[in-house]
């Protein structure tokens, strides 16, 4: 699979995810119209959909069909979307733009944005629990992985550690710990839950956990670099926010050149984690490379 083929592949899988997300959002009855509108504004407002795509690819690499992983993949995107809504709030990163449009709290209001994020987070667990293509045992495993990745030991804990580190000096090791939770946990969960949905054995799930950890690191380093040297139009948001907010980032702690080198090493380690898997894992290898060269 070359780079052009990967783009076609990603577009195809993005389309599958978009349709599934819209369908899941439409199933809910009794949702206040403004809340539903706010949820749709953020959830269906574009994005790379890289986390759900990783889940689908991991399911395939485990030898499964994509269908059992689709609800888990959508749940991952809902959790990711909720985190972006809350990150953009004035009490957090105070961002006015997201994906080239006003952030949800700017397009609606802060209260509605908080509630829309809360609703997406809880909907994520509901769609997995109600997924009839999964056995009860696999659904429980997936919910446990998503809960750990999103909660106090994962993304939320990482966000708190990130807030605590603002304006101070931290070590490279502490920076890695922060971002392994803040960004890496949910990306790792994408690979792991996809493998579980596909019926992967313990060894393969372990391989996906190692792979996810490395591409989660790569994703964060690239995000940090783009905030320094990215194009605002391509990113759909302002650059330089991390520096102005005193955030702990890889360029700030490692320097730009060393950050680029660590990004390359993370991709190499991610591919090494898939050693022994055949052609079915090729999309995962290509995604690792894509993450390192993306411009948004």
Provide structural commentary.
By secondary structure, this protein is mostly helical. It has a single domain, classed as Farnesyl Diphosphate Synthase (Orthogonal Bundle). It has 16 helices and 2 strands. A two-stranded antiparallel sheet has the order 1-2. It is globular, with a radius of gyration of 18 Å. 43% of the residues are buried.
Features:
296 residues, globular, mainly alpha, Farnesyl Diphosphate Synthase
Architecture per CATH nomenclature, i.e. the level-2 architecture:
Orthogonal Bundle
Number of helices: 16
The percentage helix is over 70%
**Annotated CATH topology:** Farnesyl Diphosphate Synthase
Q: Indicate the CATH class.
A: Mainly Alpha
Number of domains: 1
End-to-end separation: 22 Å
Q: Supply the helix-strand structural class.
A: mainly alpha
Question: Which residues sit in consecutive blocks of at least 5 with pLDDT less than 50?
Answer: none
The H-and-E topology, N to C, reads as HHHHEEHHHHHHHHHHHH
Order of strands, widest sheet? 1-2
Percent in strands: under 5%
CATH superfamily: Farnesyl Diphosphate Synthase
Radius of gyration: 18 Å
Q: What does the main sheet amount to?
A: 2 strands, antiparallel
* Overall shape: globular
Average pLDDT score: 92
Count of β-strands: 2
SSE blueprint and pairings:
Elements: H1 3-27, H2 33-43, H3 50-61, H4 67-87, E1 97-98, E2 101-102, H5 104-107, H6 110-129, H7 136-150, H8 155-165, H9 172-182, H10 184-197, H11 202-229, H12 232-235, H13 241-244, H14 250-254, H15 256-273, H16 282-293
Antiparallel strand pairs: 1-2
Helix pairs in contact: 1-3, 2-6, 3-4, 3-10, 4-6, 4-10, 7-10, 8-9, 10-11, 11-15, 11-16, 15-16
């Amino acid at each position: 699979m070359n780079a052009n083929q990967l783009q076609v592949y990603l577009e195809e899988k993005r389309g599958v995810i978009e349709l599934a997300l819209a369908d899941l959002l439409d199933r809910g009855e009794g949702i206040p119209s403004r809340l539903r509108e706010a949820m749709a504004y953020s959830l269906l407002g574009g994005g790379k959909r890289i986390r759900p795509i990783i889940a689908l690819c991991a399911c395939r690499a485990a030898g499964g069909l994509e269908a059992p992983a689709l609800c888990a993949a959508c749940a991952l995107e809902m959790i990711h979307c909720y985190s972006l809504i809350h990150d953009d709030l004035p009490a957090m990163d105070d961002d006015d733009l997201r994906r080239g449009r006003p952030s949800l709290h700017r397009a609606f209001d802060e209260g509605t944005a908080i509630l829309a994020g809360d609703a997406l987070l809880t909907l994520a667990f509901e769609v997995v629990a109600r997924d009839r293509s999964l056995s009860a045992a696999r659904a429980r495993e997936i919910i446990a992985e998503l809960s750990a990745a999103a909660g106090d030991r994962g993304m939320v804990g990482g966000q708190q550690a990130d807030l605590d580190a603002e304006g101070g000096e931290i070590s490279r090791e502490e920076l890695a710990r922060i971002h392994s939770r803040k960004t890496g946990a949910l990306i790792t969960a994408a690979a792991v839950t996809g493998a579980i949905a596909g019926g992967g054995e313990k060894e393969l799930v372990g391989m996906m956990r190692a792979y996810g950890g490395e591409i989660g690191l790569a994703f964060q380093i690239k995000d940090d670099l783009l905030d320094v040297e990215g194009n605002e139009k391509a990113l759909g948001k302002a650059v330089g926010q991390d520096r102005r907010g005193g955030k702990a980032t890889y360029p700030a702690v490692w320097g730009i050149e060393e950050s680029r080198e660590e990004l390359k090493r993370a991709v190499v380690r991610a591919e090494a984690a898939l050693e022994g898997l055949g052609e079915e894992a090729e999309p995962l290898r290509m995604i690792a490379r894509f993450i390192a060269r993306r411009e948004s």
